[in-house]
Amino acid sequence: MLIVDKITKSIQAKEIVKDCSLSVQAGQICGLAGPNGAGKTTLLNCIAGVLTPEAGRIELDGKDLIHEPLNRKALFLISEDFDEGQFFTIRQMKEFYSMFYQLDEETFAQHLRHFQLEEKLRISSLSKGQKRQALFSIALSLDLRLLMIDEVFDGLDWNVRRYLMRCLTDKISDESMGVLLVSHSLKEIKGICDHCFLMKDQTIVAQQDLLENHLFRVQLVFLQERKPDLKTLEIVQMEQIGKCWNAVVRGEEQAIRSAIAGLSPALADVQPLSLEDYFSLMTDSTWKGDEENDGEVF
């Protein structure tokens, strides 16, 4: 569906995004994570057409998004800082977007009722969270192929998050649409997405399928100091601390446990590798996502 291929974007002679590639399929919710300043928002803006990249290719359903602006009618971006139409009412904002998109009035009214918002309210009178609720009401009422969300739950309380998660899940259930969302919090990514990309230093450095985790952390302890023979396994990383061996292994859990059993260790432990540890491993970084104590994700 969405293909982003080797996108590069500079602003004032500084590379903000360089050689970035990712893909999103219909029916997927994909996350784009990374520390502040990694280039996440700039990449989203390139996909949405807010910025024009100097190099690379962006296609949605095989249609060029960079040079053919009309093809962008199949996507919508909920930006982190919504400041357009501050003097609009919610009704005027709805009418504005209706000029460019096919909007379902009944669905829009249903979302507004849930958020306890009225069309007569001015955008400038709303809180940050209410502005995002109004914009989500618009986005969830459109006929889209791709919905992009920057800092997905920023400014929203836990019950709104639960409601939006249900709505997003319903929207992708028939595989007519995909979702690409940005967050600096791996906690949010894990709670929402089935696939995640990590940006660091203006490029995508790692990705992980969150539904099928085939990476495991293995700890082995032997009574005598020895190096275990693990050549039948795909070792990503291994280190020795005395009689203890710590390894990151890629493969099926049962196959890993069978191979370890044949070594007769005094102690063996196999645990799935967390998303935070995986990204730290792949990027040689201590960043593990900014985790704020702001309640459950959904």
TrEMBL record:
InterPro entries: AAA+_ATPase, ABC_transporter-like_ATP-bd, P-loop_NTPase. CDD domains: ABC_DR_subfamily_A. It comes from the Bacteria. Residues 2-226 form the ABC transporter domain. GO terms for molecular function: ATP binding; ATP hydrolysis activity. Keywords: ATP-binding, Nucleotide-binding. This is ABC transporter, ATP-binding protein.
